[in-house]
Amino acid sequence: MGDKRYRVKCEDGPRHECLTGEQLVALARSGQVDLDDLVALHGTEQWAHAWEIDGLFETSVVHALRVHREAIGRMHRSIRGGWISLIEYRRQRDEMLRRESGVATSRWSGRPRPDEIRANAQETLVRAAKEGAAAQRSARSPARLGRAPMPLDRAALTGSFQAVKGNVSQILRGDLPEWAEPEVWLGEIRRHGVGVTLRTAVLALLLDPLEPVMHAQQWLLAVCALAAAGGMLLQMGLPAGAYAGVHRSVRMLVACGAISAVFVVGKSIDVHHGLIGHFWPAMAGWQDQLSTWLQEILQRLGMGSGGTTGA
Known about the structure:
Elements: E1 5-9, E2 15-20, H1 21-29, E3 38-41, E4 48-49, H2 59-67, H3 69-80, H4 86-97, H5 114-140, H6 154-172, H7 182-207, H8 211-214, H9 216-236, H10 244-269, H11 274-279, H12 281-300
Antiparallel strand pairs: 1-2, 1-3, 3-4
C-alpha cells in the first residue's frame, strides 16, 4: 500500500483518519474494519468497500464475497428495514462465506470481532438504563389495589420478536432456516408418523358413525389443520435449534392425512352411512334414527331440515 494514507468509516460507528497502510491492515486483521466498511484515501471522498482494497483481505475471502454478492446485498438491505441487526447480518454473511473453499481456514475467518463486543456493551447499557428508568417510575407510582401486577417477561417477548424477524428475513432472501430443512421434517415423520397415523385413524373410525349426521370427521380435520398452522406460527417465534413448532405441525399434518384417508374411504363405500354403518346394519339404523331426531329438533326450533343429512 506504499506511503498512502487512508480514512475509514465503520458501519458500527468508529471512524479512523490518516491511517498508514500497515495500520489499515492491522485494523482489518483485528476485526475492527469489516468487509463492508468504507475506505477512502485521506483527503478524498472516493469511498470503496474495504473488501475492494487490494491486499486488505485474503483472495479466498474476496472471491467468496463476489460469488455471493447478490445474496449478501439483499441481506444487507434488510438492515434498513429493521428485519435484522448489523451484528446478525455479519454473522449470517460470515457463515455463508465460510462455505466457500479456503475461507474457513483463512486468517479472516479466525479474526476476533471487536464490533460484537462494542454492540453487546451498548445493548447492555441501553437495557440497564431502561431498567433503571422503569424502577424509578415504579417507585414513584402509588400501589394499585394493594396487589402488584404480574411481571411481563420482556426478554422472552423480545427474543420471540427477534426470532420472527430473523426467520422472515432468511426466508425472504431465499435461504431456508434450519428448522425448515426437509431432513428435520422427514426425521420427525420417521419417529412419530406411524404412531400418530394409527392413533388418528382409530379416532377417525370411532367418529365415523357420527360423520353422516354431524360431520365429526370434517370438524376433526379442520381442528388438526388449524393446529398445524399454529405450530408453524409458533416455530417462527422460536430461536435457532428449537423445533417444538415443527414437532406439532408434523404430527398434525400426519393426522390430517390419516383422517382424510378414513373419510375418503368411508364416503366412497357408503356416502349416507359411512364405513361402519355400511357393514353394520344396526349402526345404520341408529344413524337414521339420530338423523330423524335431529331434524325434528331443528324443525321445532324453526330452523327447518336443511342443516342435517338424512339417510
